[in-house]
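Re-run requested by the PI after the first attempt was lost when the workstation crashed. Everything re-entered from the original request form. Ligand of interest: flavin-adenine dinucleotide.
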Amino acid sequence: LAGLILGIALRQRDVPVTIWEAGHYPRHRVCGEFICGRGMKVLNALNLIEPLSGNGARKATTTAFFAGRNGSPVLPLPEAALCLSRFTLDATLANEFRRRGGELQEGKRWTDSTTREGVVVATGRRAQTRPGAWHWFGLKAHARNVELAADLELHLTSNGYVGVCKLSEGVNVCGLFRRRRNAAQRSPREEMLVGPPGSALFARLENSEFVPDSFCAIGGLDLRPPHDLAPSECRIGDALTMIPPFTGNGMSMALEAAALATDPLEQWSLGQTAWAEACQRIASCCDEAFRRRLVWSNRLHTLMFFSLLHPPLIRTLARWPRAWDFLFSHTR
Ligand SMILES: Cc1cc2nc3c(=O)[nH]c(=O)nc-3n(C[C@H](O)[C@H](O)[C@H](O)COP(=O)(O)OP(=O)(O)OC[C@H]3O[C@@H](n4cnc5c(N)ncnc54)[C@H](O)[C@@H]3O)c2cc1C
């Protein structure tokens, strides 16, 4: 996503761009498929809202939180968000990139140096290399026959959370889960996504029909900030840093990072700035743009895994809707 958006933005300025993509389009990805926050401005600036809407993107304006069977009232999203399957989103952006003269090499994995001048690393999440107490993994599927109270619902469980958001056809069900390293637990993926019996999540999904081809999973997620970035490396999106998924802000950060990288990379391509200087500028702009929301969302992410705090969180959101505005504005 970050790579395609950067490619589109640079093509708009006539900078030659080749994208090496290890996979192929279209394809399903583990993602809540909910774009909110400042990334919407980037899509607007690049005139991408229209092609995305034409391919089924749906506006989301409300949200609600659940823990067990208890839920918050339906809360307005401070800014409208966009819901679209990654299957369609990524393929639409790939077409736009090609239409604007970009060269997209699908099925080609970059194996050369990532510190070479002109190489931007937009390879997505960094696999967990440092041992931790927990193994983090994500699951995603599309489902039909699901009634939701809000456009986006977030359901908290003891070892994870599941977002359910309305798409133009059916819903996206996507969860982040944790398991103790080396634990024997092996629940079937459907069981993890539908939540424990008696919960509001279970009630939503017990009569749903999952779309078999849409199931996907991702493991070895590293939610801690990176510690080994090379100074002459240019990284954007999850390859730079990953925000906890409950914020629904990862795609926005990928889009924003691409936008922040556009000016310095254009200047480098015109010979107006050195590569190391361009990389440094991009890194410091991203740091400034993302630092506060990363701090807040990492704190909240830790708290969300204390089940005892779930009921007070739901009560707080029910009594003080302003608490929601506060949380939203500090994590986007
Ligand atoms: C459970 C979960 C739920 C989420 N829900 C949301 C949500 O609702 N809203 C939201 O905004 N964000 C969400 N996110 C985060 C979001 O999916 C990511 O932040 C976003 O996809 C990052 O985009 P990216 O371009 O950096 O990486 P990606 O979209 O992962 O793209 C990286 C690309 O690089 C390719 N690649 C990797 N290595 C190479 C190589 N060596 N050579 C060539 N190609 C390579 C991959 O094939 C891939 O296509 C969620 C994440 C998880 C785990």
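Saved to the shared folder this time. The first strand starts at residue 18 and ends at 21.
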